[in-house]
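User: These chains co-purify. Model them together.
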Amino acid sequence: MDRVAQTLITAAGIGTIAAVLLVCVFLFSVAIPLFRSTRVEPEHTFAEAPGRQSPLRIGIDEYWLMGWSLGAGGQLQAFGLSDGAPIGKPIWIRAEDKDDAAALSCAAFDPDGKSVALGFADGSVRLGAIGFKTRFLPEVPKSLVDLDTGDSRPYQDGIAQRTSEGQIRLQQLALALSPRTPPVSASAIEQIDFSVLPEGPVFCARSADGRISVNAVHKRTNLLTDEDAIDVETAELPLPEGVTTPPRKVLITGTADNVYAIWSDGRLVRYETRDLSHPRQVEAIRLTPQNDAQITAADFLLGKATLVTGDSLGRVRAWFSTKPARADTRDGVKLVMGHELPPCEGPVESLTVSSRSRLIAVGDSRGHVRLEYVTSERSLAEVKVDDAPVRLLAFAPKEDGLVAATDKGVALWSLDAGYPEVTLATLTRPVWYETYNAPAQVWQATGGNDAFEPKFGLWPLVFGTLKATFYSMLFGAPLALLAAIYTSEFLGGRARARIKPLIETMASLPSVVLGFLAGLVIAPVIETIVPATIASFFTVPLAMLSGAFLWQMLSSSTAIRFARWRFVCMILLLPLGLLAAYGIGPGIERWLFDGDLRLWLDHQGDGAAIGGWVILLLPLSSVASLLFMVRTVHPWLRGISGAWTRRQAASVDFLKFLVGLALAVAIALCVGMLLIGFGFDPRGVSRDSEWALVGTYVQRNAMVVGFMMGFAIVPLIYTLADDALTTVPAHLRSASLAAGATPWQTLTRIVIPTAMSGLFAAVMIGFGRAVGETMIVLMAAGNTPITRMNIFEGFRTLSASIAVELPEAAAGTTHYRTLFLAALTLFVMTVLVNTGAEVVRQRFRRRAYEL
Amino acid sequence: MSSDPPTTSVFEREPRRAVWQRRRRAGAHATLLAHGEPLVWLAGGALAVALAMVVGLLGFIFVQGASTFWPAPLTRVRMLNGDVYLGEETRQQSYQPDFDVFPKLSTDIANAIRNELTDTVASSSSSPSPIPHLPTPDPDPDSIQAIRQRIAQGDISIDSAVEQLTQKLIVAAKAKLDSDGLAVRRSFRTGNFEIAQTHFHWLDDFAIASQDNPAWALVLERLSKGRFYGTPVAFLIDGKSVATEPGAVWAKFQEYHDAVRDRWRQQIALERDELGAIARADDAARLAVVAAGLKYGLDSTERANALAAQANQQAQSEGKAAAITAEIKRLHDENDRYQLQLQTADGKDSTQYVAEIVRAYPANQLSTAGKWGVYFSRWKEFLLDDPRNANSEGGVFPAIWGTIAMTLIMTLMVVPFGVLAALYLREYAKVGPITSAVRISINNLAGVPSVVFGVFGLGFFCYVLGAHIDQIFFPAELAEHKPVFGTGGLLWASLTLALLTLPVVIVATEEALAAVPNSMREGSYACGASKWQTIRRIVLPRALPGIMTGAILAMARGAGEVAPLMLVGVVKIAPDLPIDRVFPFVHLQRSFLHLGFGIYDLGFQSQNSEASKPLVFTMTLLLIAIITGLNVAAIWLRNRLRRRFLSAQF
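Assistant: Joint model of the two components:
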């Protein structure tokens, strides 16, 4: 029995403790794969490109069974992916479904890999999609009965495969093209690009005679005949002056408002085409600023906002439009080079973009293929096809494979890109996202459409967490420490026994309750009385101080007789202080901020900056004034007060307090003026100033959170601090008091120095609690991931992001793992703080024990 | 003591001595300073602030939460511009009106007066139609009657009459602003959402012409669409009016309402229990087919058998379902015969099904007893019924039930393991750096944010453990993308919270074990007891109060946590309770409702958060009551058991 119990308890005990450790290990194990490298494995190679012509484009299906290749002459051929053997007969794509119609002259694919625009020799265009259709056969055909699970076999111009559930899935090539448009040029179209807007497709084309046009396609239904007619609204784009050669490439952005014409020598001309009746050239830049290379490849990334170019020196660069404050272009937009990726060894030969992310594959003339991620500027992997130039590259639809074609053959790789958008650098350093004016640290995990690029910068969240903690501690820590000091040193035993549990009940308030009150009750109320709220931070302490100076005026005997009423007076002074704040709040607003504090905070009102400075500087200047008093006035008073009565001394002291107060205000005013003289504004230079402590007022803000979080951390710090103070041995106190020290002297010179480490540990543990608090910040902080210190604005913390976003993040995605990383960050932060506190506390205990 | 380095450093630092020397020739002022009165008062002030925070918060929640269900009187407000509102006043505030409020108001008033005058002049009917916007004491020269007379006599044109009157009213309205130009406005809950498209109206005090409390104004609380306020016009049975006097209508309504509600309850019970059971059986048969297909192949005999069983089941359930549906339809049709016709304050007619009405009362006629009746009936509904109208009204019973079930299962899991771990640490493990490291890490774990545990729970319990359980035991559900344990649920939520509260139990138990005097253990060993016997007979009973306290504190902590639950199984709407009368009674895989999450969801995610705010306060009060109750129980238990053992100590 005994041994059984021992084994059981030991096993369960160790198991429980192991389970606890599992938490940490598991968080690590989920977050760490974010940083693993990309895997590329060769799968198949076959000697000759299917279709026997140099292909314009190759596509493969999502099950890795078959592919298609589009030849330069318009020959569309399906083939098996394992051996490259053609499946079915080729389809010839022409301007019309007749054998003598005009032949294909060019093709352009959307980054999604399916939508296509085809240009023909007669100047007409067809739009559509090339892809696969998948269907499940209702019954298993005889020829496929012996097919095993997972095996595949050509069937009816497609490939059939038996799924794990026993059904037969048939994949066939699917081609859907619109009827041809009326010719947009007299000669063959040699370059084309398109975008599909909700109103209809828009394409730009460069014809053999060198003219560039942009065309909007409208479909009209003839009411009489019920036939669809396609007409095209065409606008010709003028070539820039002095240029006679036609551009090598024309591209149109995803919103169809810009057309880029790119020449081999690196010249890029941007046309604004929002209004087709007035297209205009707005910007001309060089894609090779040193003029040292030829542009050899250019294409849009997913979303068609970022242009990726490759040049003859092997460099790959990404360009996108920004809206800087001062742009020298006609539409205020400037095309900039946002990223330069690690260069290839040889001249860039071909380039393809993924349909899911900002991943690209670059092929060079020496047969290397390099996988790179644009936003994180990371080179992920490099493989070698053979020695011939890589003519063509394509990604598999799920980004799980890569096809490369050279003149010698075709090679396929399976690909596991991992999490290329996340690196330590993108998590912690500014990243230049497309259309942003400058590199920035952004957290924006989900967006409206497929082309949205998730932005995982952890800094805004960490900043939000620290901001919440900072303001909460600013409010909560002094309050809790002072309250604990008063409780342990000045409160009688019975009052103490009642008050302490009352404050400790605050600890058991669920944080969701605090969050609800903060967000829905306190925040709207405070919003209407901002000046009074600010004033109360001054009036309440002032009320207490005035109370103290008045109390001093009592004679010693009266003071001792009424000692038990002292705390009651303090409690009564609190509403008095609050009332005073409420009374003078509007006055302050009128007097210092020209009648509207919130307008002033928003950089709009006429109020001068001096009001803000005075309020911000007052705490500091009070300390300065106090120091001045202690250094100069106290010794002087001490010298001359020898013969005074207590009441006289108290009156002088009160006078001194008033003078000190005036002095503090004066110092704040002077320093404030000085700061304004140097051009500093408490609100910062603009609304976006990061380190300004005050600024635009938002209903749910750090002040509200700081106040409400006080409810969560005050009882914690209070209890621990009170414990630390009471642990100070009684004989130390007795000795001090017996030596003639007042309780106050005993406190400041004996008790606090002894209990210092315990108090410090209490504050640390409060800090740990504030860091991880979720519901209060979730409900009261507004959850905008901004990085501004402004106390009147909200923020988004790590914990709130996790609570809101994790249920929506699919397991295993970048978002999911990044949130685990956020949880791990929180975990590490709190563990560090708590371990530090624990170590300090152990030392304190040991010391207290020694005493 | 002077040989003790830390003490000496406290007493004999250089500056201290300097202070003492200076004090010798110090006067009254220095004595004063020595008491540090101002700073003592600052400290006391901090304590006062902290106390005010607790007391204020608890008091505020208590008042708000407890007053939610008190029936307020109904006020009919006639505005100067002719609009009429009927509703319960909810709050008031003073604000700075827009600069264009008065020009707008004067146009509105002018239009209203003109309509009134032209109407009466044109029709010249003698019936004194109630003129909503004008207080009309008869001798007043500005009363409508007087003006009408003067217009009839040709003394004054309509235009100038309108202008004069408007001018006068606007001046009066402006006089209602206070000296700072601030206006008072009140928010009225006016209900009638399907007509007004809003639940609340802010009414400016200066724009109010008159207000009264109509005797027969009714409050209807409905199953959906929120409250309805109006005066009864008729009671309809089969579309025919059987009463038209408000008092008679009200009597009829009371006569039939209980029976209608009973039928409605029967109908809901049939739908939920009987039809639910049939649907469950059908589902089970269908899943059996899928499972057989997955296990034995699509063309196996097992699958064929399952298919046959399914067909059989379906045939059976169709018959049963038809009978039940017919019964439901009968009840429904019977209920649909009874309707209540009401008129809103602005004169629109509206007909309400009696079955839709949960509770109705003539607010302005309630006696004190009647008010208490409504109050307690609302509390009863709140505690015992299901929510209605998108959780914004009705009861929170499922949330209470979910909270209790989760907390209980959590306690069942955390206490044994916590106690075993503490026993191991305190009684079995060898004291050394490892145990102290483990202890520090357990202490540490108590400080880890709860949301981190939620992340772990979701990632490990749901996506790793749960997914494996599904693969082994529920392949059919998995094939249909309806994971059973692979998603949040009661079990995972309880486990997550158990992990979260484990440190509480371990620390409390360890302290309790440490408090058992070693002399007792040694005495037990000396009597020849083995280690386990000593632990079981001597140590554990004495540590029991501490362990119980730890368990209750863990419950209190667990019941109030929301952040981790948001990740591992709490939902807004759950069709079934996690513990119910259906075999196997405890459904560990089900997601559940939770009071704390309800507060978050209703307060922040609901579309009509203003209307549901009082309910949120009540939920808050309930949650705090539960948690405080648990805490008080912990303290009481600790004291009681401690006293018992103290007296038994030798």
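DSSP finds 17 helices and 32 strands in chain A.
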